[in-house]
Write a structure and sequence with these properties.
This protein has three helices and four strands, in the order ββαββαα. A hairpin with a 5-residue loop joins β3 and β4. The chain starts with a strand and ends with a helix.
């Protein structure tokens, strides 16, 4: 995750003002994004809200499309895993 910080509304000396922080996802964020998708997984859901903190402890939330972050194979494996769990619950009831 890349974060940037910009200062707005300051005077000529750089006093006062407000910092605005921005964050952008990178491909190497896949590990923590994958973990959060697995925790929330629902085969009918296409978008997931994931969050992460930067080095200053500021939390950022992102709305991610599952197919942008999981390969077809990973997605099918998750669907299979969760549907098998559901079948086991149905059979044991």
């Amino acid at each position: 995750m890349i974060t940037t910080k910009e200062k707005y509304g300051c005077d000529a000396d750089g006093n006062r003002g407000v910092y605005q922080k921005y964050a952008e996802l990178e491909e190497n964020d896949i590990d923590w994004i994958y973990e959060q998708i697995v925790e929330q997984f629902d085969e009918d859901k296409k978008y997931y809200t994931v969050s992460n903190e930067d080095e200053d402890g500021c939390e950022f939330e992102f709305e991610v499309y599952v197919r942008d972050w999981l390969s077809d194979q990973e997605y099918l494996e998750l669907k299979k895993e969760f549907s098998e769990d559901w079948l086991i619950i149905v059979i044991t009831i």
